[in-house]
Amino acid sequence: MEAIQGSTHVAVLLLGDSGIGKSTLLDAVVAELGTTVTPVRIHGSPSLTNVPYGVLGPFIVELPVQEATSQLAVLRTLWSRLEEERRASQMPLLLIVDDAHDLDEATAGILVELAAAGWAKLLVASATRPGLPEPLLQLWFEGIAERIDLRPLTQGQTTEILERELGPQVLPNVAEILWEASEGNPLLLHGLIDDAKKDGTLLQRNGVWLLGRPLNSHGDRLSDVVRRQLLRRSPEERQALNLIALAEPVSRELIESTVGQDPVAVLIEHELIRVTPAPHPQLRLWHSIYADTLRNLISPARSLQLRQSLLRLMDSEPTSAEGLLRQVSWSMECGAEVDDRQLLRAAVLASRLYEDELARKAAALIKDPELQVAARSVIARTYFNTSDYAAARDILEADFAKGLSVAVLLTGTLMWAAVQAALGHSPADIMDRAGALLEAGERLAEENPEDAEGILKATRERYATMHAMVFALAGEYPDGDSAQAAVLAGPPANTLEAAFRLALESEQLLVQGKALQAFATVSEALESAGSGHDELYFLAEFLVARAAAAIIHGGDWEAAETLLAGVAAGPGPNRISFGGESTPRTALSCCTRARLPRPCTPSARHWSHCGSQIPSNSSP
């Protein structure tokens, strides 16, 4: 507004990615200016990019055909038409140019002539890539145009949008997940919000807006956005986008050998796809949500055709975990055969990424009996992800304390114990039932005397780890004279057991009012636990919740902020199912706003629930 109304600049140039809000901002500026200007709209078109003065057709329709290529004749006719509108309103002319990156050079030159002569001011919006035509960019180089680059929304701005659309009662992780999924793009954000509300993913319970399950990317609003993007691309570019979406990350050389170098170069320039650095450059779509939506728009028959065209050129298997997951998923969608071990690897990876449907489909296709126990354990984990503990229990119970090898015998045992705890069984009851694991280990040792020592050691170690875990989950110490207490008397068998013991000790210190000692103890647990525990993927949230409880109870707000800021957040679905970091953050915010003399921290027993699964029937 300042630049348009001032005397220094003859043009304002708005640049940003597709969907960032350039057109919305143009409309807002015109509405704010109201009747103080004579607005005239010109819209760039990709179909007229190579047609001189093509977009000016409605203004120069009276120009004789033989003069249609004369810059002077076009300028004279255009100015005559604009002057009529200006005289009618008696207000200065403002030319509003949207999608200026699609203007032909000749039209851009005419507009610059009008602005430079002081006959009109320009309000121009353009995509950052490929950018403005040279004549318009020259205005900025000469210092008589104001350039404003529109950036993606911050997380705070995303929260403001959600609160304006839904109200103030929105869980913090909702904004964080939507911000990450949209990458700060307002068009994608609004599409995600509309689709999530429509399909029940984003819902209101007890007055609070929350996400009940992971976002989907095939709603009507998002699909419409992607379709409109595709309509603007050439057939070769659309084929490249389809291939990359189905196979990403995929070798740039492979895609270029299929569709040619030019379409790939154009898509990179327009920031529709991105490329990893050499020596082995790979391609993926710029927005991951675009890739998910695009895959849902491709028919199975077309997908199979594209897969066959790509496989003929591939000489190796995917090297990355993401590439493996994408290829297995693509194969299953097309009905192609996949090796059982590759299916299991993909199922495990999908469950870690909370792609539960994909994990179940891959696990269900495994035919090898030796791998089916592990496959069923993966399926149980997907139900655990979504709070369906009964379904997870039924699957795990069928295999618990069974198996012809120690590896199979131990598969899913930690998950079994976590499910029992989530269903409300007491630690003593769980461990009594877990005695079947020790008995199975003894039987297996008798049947395999040459490996007996290793089998007994492994099963006893797993039993001890389960023991420490279920008591820590419940926030309870066993009675001093019980057999369960005797298990805690000896040294921990491994780092996991040590971490759970320290977590339990931290809670005991906290309820005694020793917040600083509690924080030091749970910090030691965090260090002891390390990372990469496949079955206990909620371990980090479990321990961080206790660390936050202790430090908040101690009133050290600065240290609490540092702790929470330093924790690597898991993927969006992880924060829906195991959002342990959200609860202490909310408690900290609540205490800070209220300026309470003592923080409103829930009891230590409550914190034990924050680190594990929240029951599906509980309040937000």
Describe it.
With 620 residues, this protein is an alpha/beta fold. The chain has 4 domains: 2-149, P-loop containing nucleotide triphosphate hydrolases (Rossmann fold, 3-Layer(aba) Sandwich); 155-216; 387-493, no CATH class; 494-611. It has 31 helices and 10 strands. The chain has a 5-stranded parallel β-sheet with strand order 2-3-4-1-5, sandwiched between helices. Strands 8-10-9 form a 3-stranded antiparallel β-sheet. A hairpin with a 6-residue loop joins strand 9 and strand 10 (282-285). Helix 21 runs parallel beside helix 23 and helix 25 (495-511) packs parallel to helix 27 (539-553). The longest helix has 23 residues, at 452-474. The radius of gyration is 31 Å and the shape is elongated. It starts with a helix and ends in a 9-residue tail after the last helix.
Q: Which of globular, elongated, flat, extended, rod-shaped describes the shape? A: elongated
* Distance from first to last alpha carbon: 44 Å
Rg from Cα: 31 Å
Mean pLDDT: 83
In a few lines, what is going on in this structure?
By secondary structure, the protein is α/β, with parallel strands linked by helices.
Q: Helices, strands, pairings?
A:
Blueprint: H1 2-5, E1 11-16, H2 22-33, E2 38-43, H3 71-89, E3 93-98, H4 105-116, E4 121-127, H5 134-141, E5 145-149, H6 155-166, H7 172-182, H8 186-198, E6 202-205, E7 208-211, H9 220-231, H10 235-247, E8 250-251, H11 252-259, H12 261-269, E9 273-275, E10 282-285, H13 288-297, H14 300-311, H15 321-334, H16 340-352, H17 356-364, H18 369-385, H19 389-399, H20 406-410, H21 413-422, H22 427-447, H23 452-474, H24 483-489, H25 495-511, H26 515-529, H27 539-553, H28 557-565, H29 572-577, H30 582-594, H31 604-611
Parallel strand pairs: 1-4, 1-5, 2-3, 3-4
Antiparallel strand pairs: 6-7, 8-10, 9-10
